[in-house]
Amino acid sequence: MSTQSLAHLLKTHQQKQADHKRQNDQMRKDVVKTVNELTDTISDKVNEGVSDIFARQKELEQESRKLAAQTTRYMKQTKQWVTLVDNFNASLKELGDVKHWAEIMEHDMHTIMTTLEYVHQGK
Fold first, then answer.
1. What digits encode the pLDDT tens for the residues 79-118?
2. What is the mean pLDDT of residues 43-59?
3. How far apart are CA 8 and CA 10, in angstroms?
4. How far apart are CA 61 and CA 67, in angstroms?
5. How far apart (Å, rounded) are the C-alpha atoms in residues 9 and 22?
6. When comparing pLDDT for 13 and 4, which is higher?
7. Rounded distance, CA 39 to CA 31, Å?
8. CB-side neighbour CA atoms (13 Å) of 34
């Protein structure tokens, strides 16, 4: 083998190494690009899910506040109804007391009338 053929073999070998290095660099760039695209896609999907969850949480908080306000209104209304029923019961009790008083008065008047009739007849 001559120096020229050794030089040619060395040059061919170096050229192949350079080609392999370029191919490896290109494949590395492609892989990095693909991984970045994948990461971006995954991040977008995760962020989309987080956004949906956040929106639902916000809706639930609003509904919770509405429910609390409505419950407060119902409690006030129920308290008013209880007061109204208590007042009605007291009025009914008073009517019962008036009826009893009227019955006693009627009995007393009847007794007085009977006594007056007896006195009037005895004259």
1. 999 999 999 888 878 777 778 888 888 999 999 999 988 8
2. 89
3. 5
4. 10
5. 20
6. 13
7. 12
8. 6
Q: What type of residue sits at position 66?
A: K
DSSP-derived letter for residue 2 is -
pLDDT(27) > 70: yes
Distance (Å, whole) CA 49 – CA 87: 56
| Pick from 12-26, 38-52, 94-108: least confident | 94-108
Burial class (CB in 10 A: 0-12, 13-18, 19+), 69: exposed
- For 10-25, letters b (16+ CB in 10 Å) and e give eeeeeeeeeeeeeeee
Which amino acid type is present at position 16? K
Angle among Cα 82, 86, 87 to the nearest 5 degrees reads 120
Give the whole-angstrom CA distance, residue 95 versus residue 91.
6
For the chain, what is the total number of helices (H) and then of strands (E)? Answer: 1, 0
